[in-house]
Write a structure and sequence with these properties.
- About 35% of the residues lie in helices and about 20% in strands.
- By secondary structure, the protein is an alpha+beta fold.
- It folds into 5 domains: about 55 residues, no CATH class; about 70 residues, 2-Layer Sandwich (Alpha-Beta Plaits); about 110 residues, Ubiquitin-like (UB roll) (Roll), CATH 3.10.20; about 110 residues, Endonuclease III, domain 1; about 45 residues, no CATH class.
- It has a 5-stranded mixed beta sheet with strand order 8-7-6-9-10. The protein has a 4-stranded mixed beta sheet with strand order 11-12-13-14. Strands 3-4-5 form a 3-stranded antiparallel beta sheet.
Length: about 450
């Protein structure tokens, strides 16, 4: 059926169900005649009793379609509203399967149904508590006959509103005219266990990437606006600004992917909603370590959790940073708050690992193992590690290193030319020499030759 009726504008086909639409009655009549002609030439027959003609409102595949948009079918909504509390996982799967059919009408569905999805985990025992009951009742209450998704129109400006929570990410594709929002489609998904360890910045960025991929067919090749309630993303993803040099690998990949789209990004604050805490899983550590580095990710994670300051940093990374700095010890991290991320319980500044206080001395010794001097030691450190005052610690270490002092380059020779003296001892040069003992040297210049006398010092 799809091949037979392919190429006719304004029709949709699913197996043996056909819907024909048009902006005017004449346009719809022309398309209708074309469909009947192809069906007749293919020697197929239609059941007249199941056909409806010239309708302004039709039910098709579980949806009601009219000039205003798409609505949930009343019969399906009523079936969901009358569903009894599930008694086991099989009944819960049946309810969620029916409810997910209308996910495009429910914003933040993944966050709303997270307690119910958690019950489906094979390792989770069945415990239906008040939390699951509230999620179940709220989900049924939100799905009503009055929900409407407007028809997509290429000529209208379009916006993509993205948001995240502790449990999921969501996106709403809509038109915004005269401060009124008309949704075209909504989508959300539950975060995987490792994604729940992302920083709040990374979660908000992941919601944008989710919306871009979900509504790819609507957004590609046209200009649109991204709306976010996380202001730091404006400085990272603004297409009019250069990409920051110091951001996490995940944000770098998303920023590169966004360059293929024609968009602008705007900030719109959202009401603050309290959300319950949740257990977070594990992810792969993205940062690489230099050769012979004495610590692995587990060592750094363990000492990071023991570090009082870094423990607070982890809390703010996961829950969001305050608008203003409140603690002097946290100020260096607050200044870099848009660049910090958390992976495998290790804090990263861009691609560099933030080393806890107890491991910093040993890390400095490894970085300075080849005694290459201050400049090269700093360059090596900038590739792998970071902590507040790193540059000062390197300068202090190299400045007190005996090997570096013994092998450092002597000051360059002066290019100053002295006037030739008129007689001996009219000018003398005095300096110290150090060779296991101290010497006082006196030199006299006689024409172009020097004579030097060395006097040992007590």
């Amino acid at each position: 059926m799809t091949s037979l009726l392919g190429g006719i504008a304004g029709i949709a086909v699913l197996i043996d169900d056909i819907i024909i639409g048009g902006h005017t009655l004449l346009e719809m009549q022309e398309r209708f005649n074309e469909v009947l002609g192809r069906i007749e030439r293919a020697a197929l027959r239609l059941n007249k009793n199941k056909c409806k003609f010239g309708q302004e409102r039709v039910e098709f595949l579980g949806f009601v379609i009219d000039e205003n948009g798409i609505h949930p079918a009343p019969s399906k909504v009523e079936s969901i509203a009358n569903t009894l509390e599930p008694k086991n996982k099989r009944e819960l799967q049946a309810f969620l399967g029916l409810y997910n059919f209308y996910e495009r009408f429910i914003p933040h569905k993944a966050t709303l149904l997270e307690p119910l999805h958690r019950l489906l985990d094979t390792r989770q025992e069945w415990h239906w508590t008040e939390r699951e009951q509230n999620s179940f009742e709220t989900a049924k209450r939100l799905l009503t006959f009055d929900l409407t998704l407007v028809h997509y129109d290429v000529a209208k400006p379009i916006t993509l509103t993205c948001d995240s929570s502790e449990y999921g990410v969501g996106a709403v594709l809509s038109y915004v005219t005269d401060n009124n929002e008309f949704p075209i489609a909504m989508a959300s998904r539950t975060l995987h266990s490792h994604e729940r360890r992302y920083s709040q910045l990374d979660k908000e960025a992941a919601s944008i990437m989710f919306g871009i991929k979900k509504f790819h067919n609507y957004l590609t090749g046209r200009q649109f606006c991204i709306i976010t309630d996380h202001k730091p993303l404006l400085g990272i993803f603004d297409p009019k600004k250069p990409m920051p040099n110091m951001i996490s690998p995940r944000l770098t990949r998303i920023a590169i992917a966004l360059t293929s789209h024609n968009y602008e990004i705007k900030y719109k604050p959202q009401p603050v909603q309290s959300e319950p805490q949740t257990h977070i899983g594990e992810v792969l550590l993205m940062a690489e370590a230099p050769e012979d580095f004495p610590f692995d990710a587990e060592d750094i994670a363990r000492e990071t959790n023991r570090d009082k300051i870094l423990s607070n940093v982890i809390y703010y990374i996961q829950r969001g940073w305050p608008a203003k700095e409140t603690d002097a010890d946290l100020r260096p991290f607050w200044l870099h708050r848009t660049e910090l991320s958390l992976q495998e319980n290790c804090i990263l500044l861009g691609c560099r690992v933030v080393v806890p206080h107890t491991l910093r001395r040993a890390t400095l010794q490894i970085l300075h193992k080849t005694h290459t001097g201050i400049v090269q030691t700093k360059a090596l450190a900038r590739s792998y590690v970071w902590w507040p005052g790193l540059n000062e610690d390197i300068e202090l270490l190299v400045g007190g290193c005996v090997k570096c002092l013994e092998n450092r380059h002597m000051p360059p020779k002066t290019t100053h030319e002295w006037i030739t003296p008129s007689r001996p001892w009219s000018r003398i040069h005095i300096d110290f020499a150090i060779q296991n003992t101290f010497f006082w040297t006196v030199s006299q210049q006689i024409f172009f030759n020097y004579s030097r006398r060395i006097f040992p010092m007590a």
